[in-house]
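TODO from last week: model TnpV protein.
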Amino acid sequence: MEKYIYDEKNGLWFELQGDYYLPCLKLPEGEQQPVGLWGQRHLQYIKQNRKVFYLNLLTSGKLNGYLSDIDKQAEEMFFRLVKQIAEHEGVTEKLKADNQMKWVAQMNNIRSRAKEVINNELIFS
């Protein structure tokens, strides 16, 4: 028996596995886009909590694009939130020049709050 056969009726290749011919199926090749920290966090979330959604994205070949888009949205939202909160609370370059430790403490606090907002709004929803 041949290892591979082609069925002209349906246009599929089949591979011999033991006593059976199984179709040679591949996921569609999607363009690979970089996925950063936020996208990786969201990937773990949907793998654990939204399995059907994850499998639909995976089998349709749209997973990488989806995660890349989430990552870009989260990154833009993070920088925008940090900037807006810093302006609202008066954390400026003047404070940075006058009292570096206070500026670092306040910026770390602002960044933590921005991360929490993004996690609640985008990543874990």
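Done. The chain has two domains: 1-30, 35-123.
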